[in-house]
Sequence to fold (443 residues):
Amino acid sequence: MNSQTIYGHHALEWDRTRLKWSLASLQSGARETGGGNLYDDGVFSIGGEHIGWTGELRTEPDRYISEEFYKKMNSGKVSTGDVLLVKDGATIGKLALVKSVPFGRAAINEHVFILRANQSTDPAFLFYFLQSAYGQQQIQLYVKGSAQPGLNSQFINYVHWKVPAQKSQKHIVDFLDRETVRIDTLIEKKERQIDLLQEKRGALISHAVTKGLNPNVKMKDSGVEWLGEIPEHWGVAAFRRFITRIEQGWSPQAEQRIAEEDEWAVLKVGAVYKGSFRIEEQKALPKDLDPNVKYEVQEGDLLLTRGNTPELVADACIVPRVRRRLMLSDLHYRLVLNEDKCLRPFACYWLISHQGRIQIQSDAHGTSNSMVKVSQSQIRSWVITCPPLDEQKDIINQLDIECAKIAGLIKKIEHSINLLQEYRMAVITAAVTGWIDVRKEVA
Fold:
């Protein structure tokens, strides 16, 4: 986008200025010595994980600093009207407008900037400008570094924009508040549709791997309280009876980019996500570092995450057709099974079923609520149902068909959400750059 052509004719009378002249202050935050989440209460500490892509400010996960540390802070204390900007890492450019300070008091950590507007600038207009395509382009233009990309405080000296009179700023903000709420409401409805489809998928999987496909089969007590009844001819056993080997991957220092097709890459933990394999979740291995080929991912592998959030830890998937030169990270396990007794796809469906998750979440522990892990011994101890092999095959085939249908519906809904998000960005950009006249829209 060229600064000479980005603005529409409604912005002809707007004042062109540098961002720094529209701010009362730019502040950075700090983390208390020791890192991590040192306290169970105190003053809420805001990091990049608390800021959403559409501008929402979240209060989970809990992060706190001590009262003593907060009182000594010379900058970084959050006030109503502040614009918060993620300044480093993979999510540079995320923004939130503080409409009310969480829990009455809050401070930012070292990964966030506070942009505090001056008296002639509406904080919400500043927020919408930085959220616009033009604002985001300028932010990304001044990101420095490749291994650890980030913004330094000098970026406000170079970002330029046009600012209308305060009355016009208010008109634009009122218009965008209304339009973004309308679009976000549509997006929320579609996201709820996805949630319902995922619930349906989960129910189908859980029923199939515990009750089978024959509704008339005779049942028996499994002997496991949380499992209930299973088909009379099925068994129940510890997972160790079917596991031949568990392999843990390797996590060398990788580059902060996706690898080219002919390069080696290491999987990120998000490569295994809700029963599916996401090949784009990987990082390039530096050219001067030799790969460990024994950890190369193969088609048909049963993968399981060793560490993640409580909701996603021990998520499992079967690797589909995959490109070569992808390595397991040390946050992944590869489970090798005796397939004369238990087929990998059946085991995968079991692991992502409701009954599988009961055991996983009971065992998963860690020093932080946001990162927990499961051990190889725990995996071997988990209980799994044991249908005959021919029945396992039937269950796998049926679930593959039904889950593919649901995945297709979800993909269509996600596409419509992407279109709405693109439209949202276009509306914001058009309004803050004067391509549309919003005065009659808010009259």
Observations:
- DSSP finds eight helices and 25 strands in the chain.
- The chain has two domains: 17-161, 213-386.
- Helices lie at 67-72, 123-131, 133-141, 166-211, 344-352, 354-363, 376-381, 389-432.
- The radius of gyration is 26 Å.
